[in-house]
Amino acid sequence: MADICPKCGLPLDICACEALEKEEAVRIKVYTTKMKFGKLVTIVEGLSSEDMAKTAKELKRKLACGGTAKDNHIVLQGDHKAKVRGVLAKLGYNEKNIDVW
Ligand SMILES: [Zn+2]
Question: Is residue 20 scored above 90 in pLDDT?
């Protein structure tokens, strides 16, 4: 006898609530900001800590720029807003969860 999900009433093995919540939780925010001396950087926020280092490395490689991953966000040197979404999508992130500001 399968357990029933309290949320949707379906047996737990076919219930999608948890997966939906997970997807909902992943919202990635991409924006540019000016650093000291007027240097523009692109910030990528909202990645899980397990994914950060790997994703930062891929972004730097694909965008051919420098950058760092720290405190829940990635800082990329230069303005890469136009390209970050495409690169993240290729890495397996859902494009509809990526907000480019
Ligand atoms: Zn459910």
Answer: no
